[in-house]
Amino acid sequence: MSGITVHYFDIYGRADVIRMILHYAGAAFEDxxxxxxxxxxxxxxxFAEFSQLxxxxxxGHRLAxxxxxxxxxxxxxxxxxxxxxxxYWTESLCDLCExxxxxxxxxxxxxxxxxxxxxxxEKVPEWLRIIEARLDKNNGGSGYFVGNHPTRADxxxxxxxHNIIEKFHPETLEGHNKxxxxxxxxxxxxxxxKTFLETREPRDF
Length: 205
Ligand SMILES: N[C@@H](CCC(=O)N[C@@H](CS)C(=O)NCC(=O)O)C(=O)O
Prior knowledge:
This protein has 205 residues and is α+β, with helices and mostly antiparallel strands. It folds into two domains: 4-78 and 192-199, Glutaredoxin (3-Layer(aba) Sandwich); 85-189, Glutathione S-transferase Yfyf (Class Pi), Chain A, domain 2 (Up-down Bundle), CATH 1.20.1050. The chain is 56% helix and 9% strand. A four-stranded mixed sheet has the order 2-1-3-4, covered by helices on one side. Strand 1, helix 1 and strand 2 (30-34) form a beta-alpha-beta unit. Helix 1 (16-25) crosses helix 7. The longest helix is centred in the middle third of the chain and has 25 residues, at 85-109. The site of glutathione has 8 residues, from loops. GO terms for molecular function: glutathione transferase activity.
């Protein structure tokens, strides 16, 4: 079985960073959207090793766990971080993005607008400060987050900014000019990612 299939719910959620990596790379893949009502049966069938989504099939191998899938695909498509210190700079940013996603997405899913507003006031400004400082640390923010080519840090930060920060409270990005400019540059560097984001049907989260 050759080819790539992403299995996930019909939302952005955890799978979107994976979709973004694949589109950025210009890789063909099937985007299998699973309806929430289909999931209990599929889950009970042993379809997913960890009983959760996303799942990605790559050339006959079934992969699970978002961070591991992202790492695998980034290595496969040439977006791996260099060994040593660059691995740390990359992975720690991805860990922060995971913290941001796992704090905010459940609030959005449960339509907890009060909770969302509290997080955007109390936590997001500090998270954005840290992310922008990291960008600035690498060549003054003129390129990528780590080293001289895209790594998975770029994809995970991009997904957080695009699907979470800009979607719910875009004004929190005001004043973060380097971050905003980086995002535009990053998006413009892949026509396939840009087209995907501009032409797909919108989802709430
Ligand atoms: N650590 C896992 C967490 C996966 C996860 O929480 N998946 C959720 C959707 S975002 C899920 O499958 N929920 C349905 C269920 O647990 O039955 C990952 O990063 O992939």
